[in-house]
Design a protein that fits this description.
With 208 residues, the protein is α+β, with helices and mostly antiparallel strands. 23% of the residues lie in helices and 30% in strands.
Length: 208
């Protein structure tokens, strides 16, 4: 790794934290753990590691870091968490028998997360319930800065508020962020006020 000693120290701290906790540390936790005086110093090292391809910043929050595939490729003693793969037993419709497959097939969630540019968010609120996205669900999001009309996106509005809505380009340079809830009104803003941060790939729901 072409890193300074301090950059390597930061990267090793993040890797150890992930191994112990299952998620990346916040900037504050990095600063405390390494005895750094300011968050600006942490930000500088994180930016350098991101530029060198060892970290991925997945979302506009402090706890938003991921170790990249490049890191795992160059650290053979480390390993990327195995992709979750489960048997795909067949297809089922309500009231009908299961249509089983003759050949063994599996459903590999690595199809969603293998590229390294995917992150998850937990949903709050009921603005997307008519698209069957409920409060407490998790959405898997592909990091992106553009979207096609009708796609469900994570959008930063006015540089301050992040929302999950369907994206539509309207006339005269406007963008409509459409909720999937008949009781709620769409958000209409100039395109310059709306920054697409990702496109929804899948919805996950836990029942227990």
């Amino acid at each position: 790794m072409a890193l300074t000693p301090r950059q390597k120290e930061v990267l090793d701290f993040i890797a150890h934290f992930v191994n112990q906790n299952g998620y990346c540390p916040s900037y504050e936790e990095i600063a405390r753990g390494l005895g750094l005086a300011s968050l600006a110093t942490v930000h500088k090292h994180i930016s350098a590691l991101e530029a060198r391809g060892y970290l991925i910043r997945t979302f506009n929050q402090s706890r938003s870091l991921e170790l990249s595939q490049k890191y795992f490729n160059e650290r053979p003693e480390s390993r990327m968490p195995a992709a979750l793969e489960i048997p795909l037993a067949g297809r089922i419709a309500a009231g009908s028998p299961v249509e089983t497959f003759e050949n063994t097939e599996t459903l590999n969630f690595g199809d969603f997360v293998g590229a390294g540019n995917t992150f998850a968010l937990q949903v709050r609120g009921e603005s997307m319930i008519e698209d069957h996205i409920c409060e407490g669900d998790y959405v898997l999001v592909e990091k992106a800065n553009q979207a096609r009309n009708g796609e469900i996106v994570v959008a930063l509005v006015g540089g301050m508020e992040t929302t999950l809505k369907r994206f539509y380009q309207e006339a005269e340079g406007m963008v409509r962020l459409q909720p999937a809830n008949a009781a709620m009104s769409p958000i209409m803003r100039p395109a310059s006020d709306v920054q697409v941060q990702g496109r929804v790939l899948a919805v996950l729901r836990k029942y227990r």
